[in-house]
Specification:
A hairpin with a 2-residue loop joins strand 6 and strand 7. It is built from 3 helices and 9 strands. The protein is rod-shaped, with a radius of gyration of 34 Å. The protein is an alpha+beta fold and 187 residues long.
Length: 187
């Protein structure tokens, strides 16, 4: 009986020692986190991305992630593609290179990820003469490190694809009075 109570007391003591160690470590971490500086990169002026025309015609959409290296004075040291579609990447890279950043509390070069989301919304609208309706301006929204670009699709109206039915007489029926008429496709 004494042996069980002795091992229970040892187990209880071990738990208390572990709890004290965790509390001490948490206190030490909070003290060191107070001494470190908070670094924050802020996008102050966005250069509006341009949807690549070929990607727009092919209806290519998706996210492009760009890694920007910002110096402590806010200047851009480098811009690299992190992830994304190769046809959309040049537009995102150009936009990031021409944008303006501020680095608050930075002591050296800081990496910053920007996510560009390219999307196509709406459909093609043509009048009977194949004239497109008035296009809307691209919509650009920015929320911290996420930029969304939404455009209307690039549409092509092909008037030749319309089939027009006309009535023609066969050549052998030109001299006959009651020769039937035939329909033909005119392309």
């Amino acid at each position: 009986m004494k042996l069980r109570s002795l091992s229970a007391a040892r187990g209880f003591a071990a738990v208390i020692v572990c709890c004290l160690a965790v509390v001490e470590r948490a206190t030490a971490q909070s003290a060191t986190s107070d001494t470190t500086h908070e670094t924050e990169v802020v996008l102050t002026k966005l250069s509006t991305p341009v949807y690549p025309p070929l990607a727009r015609q092919a209806h290519i959409t998706g996210d492009v992630v760009v890694q920007v290296s910002i110096a402590k004075d806010g200047s851009i040291e480098s811009v690299e593609l992190f992830d994304g579609h190769p046809m959309l990447a040049p537009a995102a890279l150009d936009s990031a290179k021409q944008s303006t950043f501020v680095c608050q509390g930075c002591e050296s070069t800081t990496s910053y990820l920007l996510t560009y989301t390219f999307g196509i919304a709406g459909g093609c609208h043509f009048d009977p003469n194949c004239e497109p309706s008035e296009p809307h301006a691209p919509q650009v929204t920015q929320s911290e490190d996420k930029i969304t670009l939404t455009v209307e699709p690039s549409c092509i109206c092909d008037p030749v694809s319309k089939i027009i039915r006309i009535r023609v007489r066969a050549a052998k029926c030109l001299y006959l009075w009651r020769c039937g008429l035939q329909e033909a496709d005119d392309k």
